[in-house]
Amino acid sequence: MVRASTEQGVNAVLSREFEIDEANLVPTANLYEDLELDSLDAVDLVAALERQFQMKIDRHKDEETIRQMRTLADVYGFVDTKLGEKTSQSG
Q1: Mean pLDDT in runs of 10 for the chain (91 residues)?
Q2: 5-34 burial string, b = 16+ CB within 10 Å, else e?
Q3: Bridge partners of 30?
């Protein structure tokens, strides 16, 4: 189960960086169809998530996972996984 803080942080990024109405930020929202992001936005989203969560995303290692993300739930899960890796590395 994804942490509420992860959902809130991802939603804050999307709302702030892409001016998406928070009412549209539901787990089932499709990034490209519902939220109208494009491939360049996806690159910007990764950078914004790194800043928001103070983590580093290895674009080479995670490239395939990032490409496969289609819904907001996918983004939540990805960020939660990366945060778990960050915690286990620092702990």
Answers
A1: 90 97 97 96 95 92 94 97 82 60
A2: ebbebbbebbeebeebeeeebeeebebeee
A3: 71
The answer to whether 36 and 72 are in contact (CB under 8 A) is no
Angle at 10 between CA 7 and CA 31, to 5 degrees: 105
- Parse the chain into domains and list their residue ranges: 4-83
* pTM recorded for the entire structure: 0.91
Q: What is the CATH number assigned to the segment(s) 4-83?
A: 1.10.1200.10
